[in-house]
Automatic annotation (TrEMBL):
<dbReference type="GO" id="GO:0005524">
    <property type="term" value="F:ATP binding"/>
</dbReference>
<keyword id="KW-1278">Translocase</keyword>
<dbReference type="GO" id="GO:0140359">
    <property type="term" value="F:ABC-type transporter activity"/>
</dbReference>
<feature type="domain" description="Mop">
    <location>
        <begin position="290"/>
        <end position="356"/>
    </location>
</feature>
<dbReference type="GO" id="GO:0015098">
    <property type="term" value="F:molybdate ion transmembrane transporter activity"/>
</dbReference>
<keyword id="KW-1003">Cell membrane</keyword>
<keyword id="KW-0472">Membrane</keyword>
<dbReference type="Pfam" id="PF00005">
    <property type="entry name" value="ABC_tran"/>
</dbReference>
<dbReference type="InterPro" id="IPR003593">
    <property type="entry name" value="AAA+_ATPase"/>
</dbReference>
<dbReference type="InterPro" id="IPR027417">
    <property type="entry name" value="P-loop_NTPase"/>
</dbReference>
<protein>
    <submittedName>
        <fullName>Molybdate ABC transporter ATP-binding protein</fullName>
    </submittedName>
</protein>
<dbReference type="GO" id="GO:0016887">
    <property type="term" value="F:ATP hydrolysis activity"/>
</dbReference>
<dbReference type="InterPro" id="IPR017871">
    <property type="entry name" value="ABC_transporter-like_CS"/>
</dbReference>
<keyword id="KW-0500">Molybdenum</keyword>
<dbReference type="Pfam" id="PF03459">
    <property type="entry name" value="TOBE"/>
</dbReference>
<dbReference type="InterPro" id="IPR003439">
    <property type="entry name" value="ABC_transporter-like_ATP-bd"/>
</dbReference>
<feature type="domain" description="ABC transporter">
    <location>
        <begin position="1"/>
        <end position="232"/>
    </location>
</feature>
Amino acid sequence: MLEVALHHDFPGFTLDARFEAPPGLTVLFGRSGSGKTTIVNAVAGLLMPDRGRIAAGDWTLLDTAAGLRLKPHRRRLGYIFQEGRLFPHLTVRQNLRYGAWFAPKDAPREEMGRVVEMLGIGALLDRRPGALSGGEKQRVAIGRALLSAPKIILADEPLAALDEARKAEILPYFERLRDEVNVPILFVSHSASEVARLATTVVALEDGRVIRQGPAAEVLGDPAVLPTGARAAGAVVTAQVVAHHADGLTELSAGGVPVFLPRVAQGPGAVLRLRIAAHDVILSRARPEGLSALNIFPGTVAEIREGEGPGAMVALDTPAGRVLARITHRSRAALGLAPGVAVHAIVKSVSSAPSDIGGGGPGA
């Protein structure tokens, strides 16, 4: 369990955040200026807060009440930056060994062969960073962090500097990191797709304070939690691959509801996370017929959050889980929507981008 409690006063801004995160990947999620990187800097020891406590299990990094403030180099952290920050004069193999060189001799270590296999960097070992793509550099940076035998891994928007193709390349490796490495991971992001795919736990931040924390499906499915704005709202459902069809679609089952997506790589039986963007959802009081959209989720209105503009966020409880729909006040009134009303959520198969579909993992 990762425990973080911090208070620090800056001119014009106060960080006052407290959260506990179970094993897995915890995402600090919010707008720029909400305090995400400030928290990571405090965990790394680059910021000494006025008051606070940071601990991972029995490893205490900071306890101001007890006068304990470990220096950064003694905190046993693996840090993954936006850019790989590899040593340009060393090969990939030598960069990885540099991480292992810092591991305490008595610390449980990851085997280099397992890390290389997990990250798919075996063919890169004799190259220098200048010959690597951005995604390859990030995979090597992850490996270097793992081989330092860290107590905590920090990742400060590690995908922000990558284009969409490189992000798609590296996201599965962060999923493996989440699922296969027994080290708490604190991951900073303002991308709803990244949060939906990767998070075991979401800590939503606004103006230096935690406004909600919990499993990704619960936090992202709360219409009151919109830390990066209504346009980024979207819920997460877990689905199992049923079959691949000859017309290029993959059929999944989400709580017994059939879901069709453009073909995915995973085979039948695989469990996936699917982010459904709220602005891609259409609502109907009756089950629709004669539509091109294939995905229809029957449900009940759980909550409606009225926006200040023309929009409203409607939360539905469905057999597949919580689904959000962003509609206008006029549509809400025309449909007579209120908590407890039966409704159908309609989603086009092609509206799901590849970045919105990922491995299920824990906490899905």
